[in-house]
Specification:
Belongs to the STXBP/unc-18/SEC1 family. This is Sec1 family domain containing 2. Keywords: Protein transport, Transport. One of its GO terms (biological process) is vesicle-mediated transport. The chain contains 23 helices and nine strands. The protein has 522 residues and is α/β, with parallel strands linked by helices. It has four domains: 156 residues, Rossmann fold (3-Layer(aba) Sandwich), CATH 3.40.50; 103 residues, no CATH class; 130 residues, no CATH class; 96 residues, no CATH class. The chain has a five-stranded parallel β-sheet. Helix 9 crosses helix 10 and helix 19 packs parallel to helix 21. It is globular and about 70 Å long.
Length: 522
């Protein structure tokens, strides 16, 4: 897959949107905002909107409507135009003064027909027609209060957030997760006795809920659009039960039949269930700076794959608060800064040591170009050293603006290097290696008994001890590398001891983190 093809797929999609937003109030949902964030940046959208009264707003039930001097609105949405989404659209429009509404959806009209239970044969006969979108256009005019006002509804495949060449994410499907063994019981609860599923291996499309099937079809529609843009005919391969369903749906996707007949190129598409390699997600054996940045720094609100970089150091504001929100945070995505993009790609593709040296080199070169009084230093890169280079830009507005993207990546690196979580990284790695050795030589019950001493309530923990979330990460790691287990008396007793110790830890926490609240339901 060509890197330029992935990026141009996203950028061409956004160009269609940007062509509609001049002097409009623009509402985006989180997934589309993330695609814009990595694909071409919010600056491009602001430039396209133009005018002093332009506004960007999050698409949500409480979103502010358009005022008397704001006659135009553009809604950019990643989801189906159905149910709650349409209700929110109606409510925003009804409390506004819009005379021209554009709704852009990342979901194709073919999937909207499926969502409205139109049979496949009837849908095939509607090729070239878009009755679902046309009906919504009429509704938009009705909600605006005048059937002579203008409404447009159309599809743009805003599927990807291109993080780097050859690496793109699908923010709208961040919650699409593979099925787990216990899900088989839920699926069986609605099936007759003669058609009960024995295991995940028996799961096919007919066994899934209509909601999950629709989510899969939305993903398949976007992937088909990507293949069309690349001019390829795909061959689908799958590892895992849910991946098998997705691959089969893409292979049999009816609207793509003509494309597959005429496509000049070929591409292999491999789907893999994330649950088959959880050790890769929770382990600490990766020697990559970006992995550590994402683990250490707080998540950028509304995003699934970016972090908040504290920018206080580049201001005159004096504060001891780590989470001070007076100054807008920086981030990792630098879609409009060529130098910062080059550094970001280097950070993704090099080991930790080389990456921090690359950050230092970029800062030194930028300071030299701006004739800032830099003092060269060789040897090991430290957070203090990086901060001393970054602060050279502090009182030079021109230099600050010229290298804003680079400075955000530099600050992200320095803040990660001095973060307590980074010091724990090596502790995690050492403990994981010890566990791997124990798993190879001992039974699972012995391994769990080794874990017991590090499960400590808040009153007994130091900064070097594991938090409740970190203990869960270690347990996921242990069970993932172990695989299938034979339950015996010793294992049962060891698991009960671990459960009891964890329950005590959770109960003694003064406040559970959002993750633990979600897991425990408390």
């Amino acid at each position: 897959m060509s890197s330029s093809g992935v990026l141009s797929f996203t950028q061409q999609g956004w160009e269609q949107v940007l062509a509609k937003v001049k002097r409009a109030v623009v509402y985006l949902d989180s997934a589309c905002a993330e695609s814009l964030h990595w694909g071409c940046g919010s600056t491009r959208l602001l430039e396209a909107v133009g005018g002093p009264d332009c506004h960007l707003r999050e698409f949500e039930p409480d979103a502010v409507g358009g005022g008397a001097k704001q006659p135009k609105a553009v809604f950019v949405l990643s989801c189906l135009l159905k149910g709650r989404t349409v209700e929110i659209l109606r409510d925003i429009i009804c409390r506004s003064h819009f005379q021209y509404c554009v709704v852009v959806t990342a979901v194709s009209h073919a999937v909207h027909l499926t969502a409205n239970h139109v049979p496949a044969a009837a849908a095939a006969e509607m090729e070239g027609q878009q009755p679902v979108f046309e009906q919504l256009e009429e509704k938009l005019c009705e909600w605006m209060g005048n059937m002579n006002y203008t409404a447009e509804v159309f599809h743009v495949p805003l599927l990807l957030a291109p993080v780097a060449p050859h690496f793109a994410l699908t923010p709208a499907f961040a919650s699409l997760f593979p099925l787990l063994p216990q899900d088989v019981h839920l699926l069986n609860s609605t099936r007759p006795d003669k058609r009960k599923l024995g295991s995940l291996g028996d799961v096919d499309a007919t066994a899934l809920t209509p909601e999950l099937l629709l989510q899969i079809r939305c993903l398949v529609s976007g992937l088909s659009s990507l293949c069309e843009h690349l001019g390829v005919r795909e061959e689908c391969f799958a590892v895992g039960s849910l991946s098998r369903v997705i691959a089969a749906d893409l292979a049999n996707y009816a609207p793509a039949k003509n494309r597959k007949k005429t496509a000049a190129g070929r591409a292999s598409v491999v789907f893999m269930d994330r649950t088959l390699d959880l050790t890769g997600a929770v382990g600490h054996h990766g020697d990559n700076l970006v992995e550590k940045i994402i683990s250490a720094l707080p998540q950028l609100p509304g995003h699934t794959n970016d972090v908040m970089v504290n920018m206080i150091e580049l201001t005159a504001l004096q504060t001891e608060e780590e989470n001070c929100n007076v100054v807008a945070p920086g981030c990792l995505a630098q879609s409009n800064d060529t130098t910062a993009k080059a550094l970001w790609e280097a950070l993704l593709n090099t080991k930790h040591k080389e990456a921090v040296m690359e950050v230092r080199r970029h800062l030194v070169e930028a300071a030299s170009r701006e004739n800032l009084p830099i003092k060269m230093s060789m040897g090991r890169v430290t957070p203090g050293q990086l901060m001393s280079y970054i602060q050279l830009f502090k009182n030079n507005l021109k230099a600050l603006m010229n290298h804003c993207g680079l400075l955000q990546l530099g600050l992200a690196t320095a803040q990660t290097l001095k973060h307590p979580q980074t010091d724990k990284w090596d502790n995690f790695l050492a403990f994981e290696r010890l566990l791997l050795q124990s798993i190879g030589e001992s039974t699972m019950s012995v391994v769990l008994n080794q874990l017991l001493p590090v499960i400590k309530p808040v009153t007994q923990r130091t900064n070097e001890d594991y938090s409740p979330e970190e203990l869960l990460i270690l347990l996921i790691y242990i069970y993932s590398v172990t695989g299938e287990l034979t339950i015996d008396k010793d294992l049962g007793e060891a698991e009960e001891k671990v459960k009891k110790a964890l329950a005590q830890v959770f109960c003694e926490e003064s406040e559970l983190s959002p993750l633990l609240q979600k897991i425990t339901g408390v």
